[in-house]
Write a structure and sequence with these properties.
The chain is of the alpha/beta class. It contains 10 helices and 8 strands. An 8-stranded parallel β-barrel has the order 1-2-3-4-5-6-7-8, surrounded by 7 helices. Helix 4 packs parallel to helix 6, helix 6 packs parallel to helix 7 and helix 8 packs parallel to helix 9.
């Protein structure tokens, strides 16, 4: 089923989380979100205040991340980062779980962290980066269960960086089959064309995280890392 560029744009969280992105790039990201009607602007925490100011009179969501991309920060530090982002104006925060704990079978510790992060987000939307490429299927399935139990609003294929891998149709379906209808699915990493985006949506994604948003909706092909 073909989607219009406008419909796809409304599902894209236009992303610039590179460590060297400067203020000019972040301001341009905001302009691109407004021009193309993207769902959200995803930036590092230090830029949330600026982005919230630039997008204040729009329907574009202000998005950021915590514990990104490694996931090994202490849970108090992660919770503080979530609270700081929300206080600065973030509508949505994507967080990384502790992959080492997951791979060690320390599910109770992971559950405690996830509950704390949901509490820290308050009214903001919170999404969990499941890093599917770095986990055994049974562990990934357990992580989705823990996310749902903790109250996450979305589960996400990966951070788009590191061992988690890129979004694939199979990974989106994995999440959609395991998450209840009220929990959304976000596909992140490696979505660079309209065909890529449509495949993710058809597989069950509700949102797409991509640094190639402009290229996707204008018929091009992005070449960014995310």
């Amino acid at each position: 089923m073909a989607h219009s560029p406008e419909a796809v744009a409304g599902r894209i969280q236009h992303t610039e989380v590179g460590p060297t992105a400067d203020q000019e790039r972040i301001e341009r990201l905001c302009e691109e979100c407004l021009e193309h009607g993207f769902d959200g602007a995803m930036v590092q925490g230090c830029w949330v205040g600026l982005v919230a100011e630039r997008l204040a009179d729009s329907d574009v969501s202000v998005c950021s991340a915590a514990g990104f991309p490694m996931g090994g920060d202490g849970r108090i530090a992660k919770a503080a980062a979530v609270r700081d982002a929300v206080a600065a104006g973030a509508d949505e925060v994507d967080v990384m779980p502790n992959l080492g704990y997951l791979r060690s079978g320390r599910f109770e510790d992971v559950a405690d962290e996830l509950s704390l992060l949901v509490e820290a987000a308050g009214p903001a939307t919170i999404k969990l980066m499941c890093e599917l490429g770095a986990l055994e299927e049974s562990t990934a399935g357990r992580l989705v269960e823990l996310a749902v139990e903790a109250g996450f609003d979305y589960v996400k294929t990966s951070s788009g960086w590191g061992e988690g891998g890129k979004a694939t149709v199979e990974r989106v379906r994995f999440l959609r089959e395991r998450a209840p209808p009220e929990v959304g699915v976000k596909a992140s990493g490696g979505v660079r064309t309209m065909a890529d985006a449509e495949a993710m949506l058809e597989a069950g994604a509700d949102l797409i995280g991509a640094s190639s948003g402009v290229e996707i909706v204008t018929g091009g092909r992005g070449d960014g890392d995310y």
